[in-house]
Design brief:
Elements (H helix, E strand, L loop, with lengths): L6 H22 L8 E8 L11 E4 L2 E9 L2 E3 L4 E11 H5 L6 H6 L2 H6 L2 E7 L7 E7 L15 E2 L6 H11 L2 H20 L1 H66 L5 H23 L5 H29 L3 H4 L11
Parallel strand pairs: 1-8, 2-7
Antiparallel strand pairs: 1-5, 2-3, 3-5, 4-5, 6-7
């Protein structure tokens, strides 16, 4: 006879299994299983190859969501294609970026972050696999463009990646012209290398090198005596400078002695002062002696008058003897003529 299973035991076992399953799901989901999410759309113009569904969405290195779906959209008016990427963002992660108060929650809501400059771009997740991820950051300096077409979803503007910028620059290059220019440069270089001008230039270069070597040897031979002469001249200059220094010292000593001699209280200056005083006294006595009313001048005038009368008498005697030589024997007669005065 079979034993009947206990329903209570089975129910408890099932309930425990459900509790364990829920706890595991909560642990694996990081506590976000029942957290709210925000959905947003990103429009990319270039290729998104390497961005799979489920790729992480990262804000400054912190995972805040994942890629939900990737679509292709055609604009019939401009005949251009864009790739909308729908992302799912963890609302709790977005709101916990800066505190957690009600005001901060409103300020950090997704539309507010977009207004503050939230931008998205594709970045390399692995160089080995080439997988991409969505990188979010605040870049208020970049332009904001809206595409629309997804009502109810917040549109996050996108930025071009460095690879896309490089590709755009390469697309703008005229590669055909660049290749033609390179080919022309190569042909010109080949013609120069194969032409006779290069050989002649090499020969001229060898000749110039030989001439430079010869000039260098001549300079080396001539610079030796010049260097010796320069050293001798430097020695003579040093000796002359020493003599000049000695002479300067002698002049300095003479100047010091002269300053000592010419000092106001020196014996030489006292003797010179006395001599000057004596010369001044002699000059004053000479001026007094040569004055018109001095006795010396009066005696000199009388002497000059006597000398003048004596000279006149001698002249008269000479005139008389010239006219009457016999008067020296007879004497002067009464009828003798008066000499002419």
């Amino acid at each position: 006879m079979k034993r009947r299973a206990n329903p209570t035991l089975i129910g408890a076992f099932v309930l425990g299994a459900l509790v364990l399953l829920g706890a595991a799901a909560f642990a694996i989901g990081g506590g976000r299983l029942f957290a709210g999410t925000d959905r947003a759309v990103l429009h990319f113009n270039g290729s998104v190859f390497g961005l799979p569904v489920g790729a992480p969405v990262v804000f400054r290195g912190v995972r805040v969501g994942k890629v939900e779906s990737i679509e292709i959209r055609h604009d019939a008016r401009s005949d251009q294609f864009s790739i909308p990427v729908i992302v799912e963002l963890d609302r709790g992660a977005i709101r916990s970026l800066d505190g957690g108060s009600s005001e901060d929650t409103q300020r950090l809501a997704l539309p507010a972050l977009v207004d503050r400059g939230l931008r998205a771009k594709l970045s390399m997740q692995s160089l080995l696999t080439g997988q991409l991820y969505v990188d979010l950051d605040l870049r208020p300096d970049e332009a904001r463009s809206r595409r629309g077409g997804y009502p109810g979803l917040v549109e996050i503007p996108t930025s071009e990646t460095a690879i896309q910028n490089l590709k755009a620059q390469l697309d703008g290059l005229d590669l055909r012209r660049l290749v033609d220019d390179v080919a022309a440069i190569a042909a010109s270089a080949r013609a120069i290398v194969a032409g006779p001008q290069l050989g002649q230039a090499l020969n001229d270069l060898q000749q110039i090198t030989a001439n430079l070597r010869q000039v260098s040897e001549q300079l080396e031979r001539r610079l030796g005596p010049l260097a010796d002469g320069a050293q001798g001249a430097l020695g003579s200059t040093d000796a002359a400078m020493r003599r000049l220094g000695d002479a300067a010292d002698g002049v300095r000593a003479s100047a010091e002695r002269l300053d000592t001699l010419l000092a106001p209280d020196s014996p030489l200056m006292a003797q010179l002062q006395r001599s000057a005083d004596e010369l001044a006294a002699a000059a004053a006595g000479l001026r007094r002696a040569t004055a018109e009313d001095s006795s010396l001048m009066r005696g000199t005038d009388r002497t000059l008058q006597d000398v003048s009368r004596a000279a006149r008498a001698v002249r008269e005697l000479a005139d008389l003897l010239e006219r009457h030589p016999e008067a020296l024997l007879r004497g002067r007669g009464a009828d003798a003529e008066e000499p002419r005065r």
